[in-house]
Amino acid sequence: MTGAAAALLLASCGEEKTFTVEEFVDGVNDQGVALQLGEELFSDDEGKRVYAVELEPVAQLPGQRAGHSGGSISVYDDPARAESQLESCRGSADLLCYQAANVVVVLEGGGIEAQQLGIAIQRLEAD
Question: What's the whole-model pTM score?
């Protein structure tokens, strides 16, 4: 586990911090990320809610096609289950995976926007 990932799993005041999907999205967007929450997706897991997301590009360079990084956010009742999903996600070479307490973000693309999201998650966890 990397130092950044370990930092994301730290407990706050003896209890592990948890987020609602709205708290998470608002928190990373307050850090300058443009994460757009989409519709809730089907999940047959009672302790998990899944939502579509899009990560807007920071800037469009001349001659570059506008693009978005799409993916999902899973919000778990139990932060330990989020950690388990993160480990599973990291086994995929094509996905970018981030965790903040009970929330896991899985993106199908990246770039500077995904790096910015990772930094925003670290800051959100530190608050």
Answer: 0.79
